[in-house]
Structure formats: C-alpha cells, structure tokens
Amino acid sequence: MRVPYKKNIPLLIFVLFLHISFMKAQHKIPQIQLEKNQVSTAFIEAKIDSIIAILTLEEKVAMTHAQSKFSTKGVERLGIPEVWMSDGPHGVREEISWDAWENAGWTNDAITAFPALTCLAASFNPELAGKYGFSLGEEARYRKKDVLLGPGVNIYRTPMNGRNFEYLGEDPFLASAMVVPYIKGVQENGIAACVKHFALNNQEHWRDKINVEVSDRALHEIYLPAFKAAVQKANVWALMGAYNKFRGQYATHNKILHKILKADWGFNGVVISDWSSVHSTKEAALYGVDMEMGTGTDGLGTTTNNHYQHYYLANPFLKAIKNGELSEDLVDDKVRRILRLIYRTNLNPNRGLGKMNNKEHHNVARKVATEGIVLLKNEDNFFPIQDKKGLTIAVIGENATRDMTQGGGSSQLKPLFEISPLQGIKERYKNATIIHTMGYETGASVYDEILPATLNQDSLYVKAIEVAKKADIVLFIGGLNKSHHQDSEGDDREVYDLPYGQEKLINGISEVNKNLGFLLVTGNAVKMPWVSKTKGILQTWYLGSMAGHAIADIVSGDVNPSGKLPFSFPKELNDNAAHAFGEISYPGDGVNQEYTEDILVGYRWFDTRKIKPQYAFGYGMSYTDFKITDIKLDQEKYTKNDQIKVTFNVANTGDREGAEVVQVYVGKHKSKVKRALKELKGFTKVNLEKGAEKTVTISIDAATLAYYNTEILNWSVEDGTYYLYVGNASNNIVKKIKFSLF
C-alpha cells in the first residue's frame, strides 16, 4: 500500500535534519595535514587545539604509551600518524621486531656508523657537530623515523661508567657547546632529537634503582647545563628520562626535575621515558611523562609480551581519569605535546626525504674521526709513520680487526660496512710490509653476558712475540670493546686496568721491539702503567664505518691530529673525584649514592686538589708546533652585563699545516663559596698553514661566570677579582690575566 506523500513530509524532514547534522559534524573535523605555508607556530597551535577537542578520552590515552617496542599509536579515523623512534646517538639502529628485542631481519636497514660521541667531543669543533647531526638526521629520515633517541649528555663522572662512550665528556660547557649544533642539525631534517638521560644517570651499575643525592649547586652547575642548552638554545623537541632516582623519586617522573624542565626552562617538547623507567601512574601523569615506552622490559633483554595496555599510562591512566582521581587536563597536555611533535616531524610538509650511506655522510664520519683522534704521546716523532719499501709494520691486537659497532647495548649498529684498523692500514701502506696477529682474543659482544674466548691465549701471546721480533715497528691496537663490563650499557667496568692480559702483552712486545706504538680503542680512560714501554700513543675512540681509514690518515700523517681529551685520564682510579670518598660516592651502597665531590668533577677536581692526571682534560698533541702569544683583555673591569673579550695570536711555527684548540678558563679569586680553581668558558679551533699566524677573539658573557646560589635558588655573579687563563689544555696555561667584575 502506498503512503500518501503528505504523510512522508515529517519523515523526510527528519532524514534531512540527520543528514545536515552529519555533514556539519564532518565539517568540524579539522584538516590534519598542513600546506607548506601553514607552519607558523600560531597556526599549528590552533590546529592542535581543534584536534584535541574532537579526540575521545580513549584515543588521547592511547597516544601516550607504546604500541610496540619503538612506536606509539596515532588516530586512524583522523589520519593522525604513528610516531616511530630509533636508537641511537651515533647511527640509526637496525629494525627491531614489533614485540621482541630480536633483529627484525630486514635487508635494507644498514646505515652509516658515525664515531661515538666521545670522539665528536674530542674534536672541539661545534661546526662539525652540526654536520654530524645533519647527516645522522638525513639517515633517520630516509629510514622513516620520527624521533632519534640521542644525543646523550650525561656527564663523565667516573671512568668506570660503561656508557661514557655515548656522551660528550666531563665538562658542561663543552657538552653544551657541542650538543646544540648536533640537535639543530638532526632537527633540520624534520627528525626530533631526544636528548638523554634526564638526569644524573652517570653510571650503569644499579642504574634502575640507585638514589642519587647531590647538591643543588652540582645539579645546576655540572649535571644540568647541557640539558638546559639543548632546551633553550637548540629547542630540542624530545627529552628522555633516566632510570635512577633523585632524592628518593624516580628521575623520569621526578617532581623537582619536572618543575625545572617544563616550568623553569619552558620546555614545550615531549618527555619520553627510558624503556621501563616508569614506575607509577600518578607520578607519570603529574610529573611530566608524555610518552611511556618499554614498560615490562628490563630495557634491552627480558620482555613481557603484548604488555602495552597494562602500561602505567594505558588502562590504569584511563581508569584514573574516568574515576576522577586524575584530571583530563593532564592527558590533554601530553597529547598537545605529542601533536606538536607530530607536526614538527611526520606531518611537517617541508621536510625532505633523507639520504643514507652516501659519500657525503662517509666523508663527515671520516672527518669527525680524524678531528677527534687524540695524540697522547709522540716520543722521537714516532708518528707519523712513513710508507716506504723495506719497512715491516706488525699490527698486533684483537681490536685491529674486531667489529666495534656491534654490542654496547642500545647504541649497537648495523653498518653497511666497517673498515677495521688493519684494513685501513693495509690499504694506505702500499710499500711497507704489513704483518698481523691477534695477540689476545675475547668472546663476542652480547648484551648482559660475557662470552668466553675460543682460542688459546698462551699460543696467541707466543705468536705475537714472534711477529713483533720480525718487525721494524709494532702498532698494538688494543683497549676496551663493546662487551659486558667494558664499554657497554647495562653495567659498569669492573677494573680500571686494561683487560684481557694486554699489559702483559705490551711488556712482552717491548722487550723484543722498542719501536712500539699503541692505538688505544676505548670510550673511557684506562690505567697506563705501561706508558714508558711505548713511543707513541693515539686515543682512537670508537670510530664507526670509516674507522680504519681515519686511523690510517693519522698514522700516516695524511691528516695532522688535532683532537683534545674531553675528559681527564687519572693515573690511579682513586685520583678521580668520584672514587676519592669511598663506596657511598661510587657505586653507592645499593640503595643510595652521594656525589660527595660536589662541583669538583673532572679537571675541576685535579686542578683544585693539585692532583696530577695521567693526561689532562683538553690535552692533545700535534705533528706541528703552535705558539699562543699577545694575549690581552679588552678591559680590566667589567659590569655583570658586559662581554669579556680576550684576544690572542696563534702561530703555526712547525713544518706542516695543523689545528690548535685554544681554551679559555675563568676562576674567581677568594670566592665566598666553594668554587673550582678554574672553569672552561670558551674555546676555538684554529686551522693554520705552515708558518701562518692568526689573531682570534673569544667573547664570554660575564653572566656565565655565575654560580648557583642556594640561598635564593637562582644564579648569582660575584663582585670582585677574577682570573682568566688561556692555554691549550687544562694543565697547560700560557697566560693568566687578572680582571674584576662590579
């Protein structure tokens, strides 16, 4: 039976109303993607507000925690993309399985391995740090990553820290100067740098539970400046929390650190937890964790399968908001920061496509390596070694051929290639005869486990002595490696000496061949009672893909070494400040740890306590000679708002080109508070041809001479007399100049 038309009118009106309402609702959904001209801060912030308004609570909570080992959820119905992260600070890590720590087995994820950050710091070249960061960011972009989990800026407090090789040394000024261009370079590609580990994660031993007690002065003057520079000078887009506790509360969701970071410094990026560093839903919600990662794992090894909905910021967070225990404003702030990250990275319409394994990246890696290698000793001009017929060079030591990009923890890499020191030397030396033997052997590098050696060590020793006898020159290539209890994440070194019987081997070689040079492959200082047995020592770090070529460049003299140590080498372990106060200072008692040395970290300790190091911070030799002369200040008195300008001449008085790093330190005379004798406040790397001379000026803001005043909880610049020190190492000062502030 047909219904009369007039009776259909109300039904038609109702259907039309529903259609119009639906169309209006659809119209309210904002356009997620941006045009290239829509990238102003105001436009993006308004866009973020409009998106938050239409997200469900469940969608918002889902964005704040992991969905896999290295990714977080987007919002499918709106086209908001997932966020994909990758280790690490000196190369993009190989693909990891979705829900396990195994290699995913991809064949297209091999990358360029750049030198570890201790080498970058040793270059004392901020411009080069920018090129390093840009190249690394290009590789991350090509691999379709959004967040690169680095750089690390934890301060080198003790040479026993297994992870020092990932960081930028013992001085906060140097670390700050190097990290800012690195971050800017990475982020120029639309890839977020994630500075880590905030804060006080200065050892691996007991890292997941040790409670650090440190003064406010040491916190602000030593351990936080590089993070502050990353936030305020580099505008870093992400920051990673740390495993340890600080004053009784876990650092990743620490009330004090949260206030410093987001309130005092104005950080507008995301805080990403370290993997399994979250321990409380309430604290994570209140004290600034924006993206929770890795809960249910121990960071790299064991794992709880499909644990993601049980994360502290997953179902427990959702339930707490629905029950009124926590405000929805908390998740809104986290989502706002996450969306800001997304618009800076994978929804950035202006970011490029990236590049990987290209010649430019290999050149940058090689340049960083050659500028970072430090010449520590050169008796009788042992280095450089000329390539000539009739010369036999014995290369002895496992590190001559060992893969140094595997192992070490989360920073391990899968490079397209890694040129070993032996390969690099063989390819460079076409006329000399190169012979090789291992000398010693260790097990493969795996996380949290020590694998035994497979060869007979006595036989290797005997063979090494035989080979050394046949050579005109011996290059011993040893040091540490990336195995557990060496230079590796997860725990610290157990001994300060060279491991694996290397000292015995050095002594044995020196008895049969006095022309012995040592290429020290480490990310840490080591005890050196064997120094007198060598004629030359090169600190070569972990150099990545181009390691062998860079080492051969320096050994042959194709490149003149210009690196300077970014941390002090103590003669004895107890000469180091962290080890001078017993176990409560390092490694702690298993629960608590006291940074008893306070602000006197690294060279500050050696200078102030008049302890002679094996090799000082800022030290490094060259194949040529330099003179620093005509050092003068532009004034004798300054106000606290002035620029202090020191001018000097640098001359290359040797017989070849080279580069010198001139360092400027400042110390307060008769301070009313405890202070170091002097602190680094400026440096510059000066490249000069043979016979050339250059006049250079370094400017220092008088405000940077402040100390952290615990009475007012802010920075104070003292009136009175100061001394400015100019030299080429912390213990080699050319001139000391008096000036005053008022």
Automatic annotation (TrEMBL):
Keywords: Carbohydrate metabolism, Glycosidase, Hydrolase. Pfam families: Fn3-like, Glyco_hydro_3, Glyco_hydro_3_C. GO terms for molecular function: beta-glucosidase activity. PROSITE patterns: GLYCOSYL_HYDROL_F3. It comes from the Bacteria. The keyword Ubl conjugation does not apply. One of its GO terms (biological process) is carbohydrate metabolic process. Residues 660-730 form the Fibronectin type III-like domain. Belongs to the glycosyl hydrolase 3 family. This is Glycosyl hydrolase.
